[in-house]
Amino acid sequence: MTSNDIKISTWKKPPSIEESNNSTLPAWNDFTSHKPSHIASFAQPSSAESSPRSKLEIRIQPFIPTTSKKREFAEIIDLTIDDDDSEPPEPIERKKSRSSSHSTDNSIEARTKQPEIAKKASSKPVLKLGGLRTKEKHPHSHSSNPKDSFRQSIPTVIVPPPQPSPKERRRIFINNLSMLNGVSIVNTIDDTSPPLDFQFITENILRDGVQQVSEDFMIGCKCRKDNGRHMGCEYLSCQCLDDSVNSEGKKQFPYSQAKFNTACLRDAFIKGRNHIYECNSRCNCDSNCKNRVVQHGRVVRLEIFKTTNRGWGLRCTQDLKKGQFIDNYRGEIITHEEANRRGETRTSDQNIYLMGLDKFTEEDGGSQYVCDGMHLGGPTRFINHSCDPNCAIYTVSYNHSDINVYDLAFFATEPIAAGTELTFNYVDDDKTDIITDEKADEMQRENGYRPAPCLCGSIRCRGYFFT
After folding, report:
1. What three-state secondary structure class fits 396?
2. Catalytic site positions
3. How far apart are CA 140 and CA 457, in angstroms?
4. What angle do CA 454, 427, 355 make, to 5 degrees?
5. Where are the strands (E) in 307-406, listed by range?
6. Is the pLDDT of residue 12 over 70?
7. Of 16, 21, 193, 199, which is most buried, counting CB atoms within 10 Å of its CB?
8. How many other CB atoms are found less than 10 A from the CB of residue 333?
9. What gap in Å lies between CA 353 and CA 346, rounded to an integer?
10. 295-330 pLDDT, tens digit each
11. E strands, 301-365, in order
């Protein structure tokens, strides 16, 4: 506040006690009136101050003593609006004058009346006494001294923000989904929406402790672009196929047919679940090479939909061929220690979306990381389990030197008609025995947990999974 912000007029000597009884004194309301005053004016402070303050009209009023000693002094009251506080101060008590019984509108009660402040549910402005030391009034204080009249504190109540309506939740999720091409959502069961704490991503996110091998160590093939009817590499000369072997241990292209947009995974890889190596940025072949499929991303249209008894699911809106690539499983790549920490903090009603990158054994230096798709991921996060699935996950690499960070790709293991729900086996073991209710009870007594009941409805349903 600068000197230009205050205008002080000449102070006049206050009237005596006798004169005050015969003259009309201004009410206390005038002391805190927001009306323009000719006595003093506090202007709006500059923007350099840390918090905004509203402009108030402040008056300097001589105080009339009620004792025999006639002391002449002025009392200045600084009234500031503070939106951070939530309660106005109590009125400042003053001793009554002997002549108060003979006055009506000019009574001490009228002069000590505090201005009313509009109260709102969200925020209430409060008047503070600037320049005075204030303290919180003890709730059990019985002091009769007027100087002990301070603001009484009230406990702060934290009100949670209102939850969005079902319509607003749908709008938020659809806006989140709009970053993906060719993915829609439909719900004909109820008015619920997928969780709003989930965010779609198009690439995996590497968290602390995860190290990916640099592309400087990536080795590419020397194949000519016109090889194989201008479809790129040939399996006899392509170095990328040195580690790509089928279920019989023979060197073979993992994909059949022509070009990436129509290529399908061969039966030998569908059955064998062998690791797939695609050509990379160091290879001499071009982007239309038939050994480049997963790296081009999803080319089919998908739909997230609400199931009758298994939450949200995923289906394709077009026919799929056997071995056709669907999409990758995306998420956060984290260490096993971080995965354990997250598992300990999850509640019993939360699903698990952890996928272990364990294609290579620990003896080989692999199996160090986990992919978590709970809060960040792609549409394949919504694929449900089935004991008789029509999809499966296959591991795909582009860098032969990195056995810890690679893609998890979904392929159709059989022809799938449009509108059919996509499913895969969460256990990823076809040899798992059927678990009856009696077996589930026994496992709960022995291990302290009960396996999750399966709701796939397949004739091959094993009853429970996550054994």
Report:
1. strand
2. 329, 426
3. 67
4. 115
5. 312-316, 325-328, 332-335, 354-356, 369-372, 376-377, 384-385, 391-397
6. no
7. 193
8. 22
9. 11
10. 999 999 999 999 999 999 999 999 999 999 999 999
11. 302-306, 312-316, 325-328, 332-335, 354-356
CB 467 within 8 A of CB 453: no
| CA–CA separation, 119 and 302 (whole Å) | 52
Tell me if the pTM is above 0.90.
Answer: no
Place of tokens 């798709």: 373
| Alpha-carbon distances, residue 116 vs 36, 107, 111, 124 (angstroms) | 18, 19, 14, 12
The residues near 223 (Cβ < 8 Å, ≥ 6 apart) are 232, 233, 234, 237, 238, 283, 284, 285, 289
Tokens of 106: 């000019």
Q: Which helix (H) or strand (E) element contains residue 171?
A: helix 166-177
Q: What is the mean pLDDT of residues 117-137?
A: 43
Gyration radius from the chain CA atoms: 38
**184 backbone dihedrals φ, ψ, rounded to 5°:** -125, 175
- The SS3 assignment for 81 reads strand
CA distances (Å), origin 93, targets 171, 324, 360, 447? 56, 85, 81, 71
Provide the 8-state DSSP code for 405: S
Cα dihedral 20, 25, 31, 36, rounded to 10, equals -130
CA distance 298 to 313: 18
In tens, the pLDDT along 205-258 reads 999 999 999 888 888 888 887 776 666 787 777 888 887 777 677 778 899 866
The runs of H, that is alpha helices, within 2-133 are 17-22, 108-111
Cα 324 to Cα 256: distance, rounded to the nearest angstrom: 10
pLDDT over 90 percentage in the chain: 35
Residue 324 in 3-state DSSP?
Answer: strand
d(CA 337, CA 250): 37
- 370 has which bridge partners? 334, 356
User: DSSP strand E in 297-450: where?
Assistant: 302-306, 312-316, 325-328, 332-335, 354-356, 369-372, 376-377, 384-385, 391-397, 407-412, 423-424
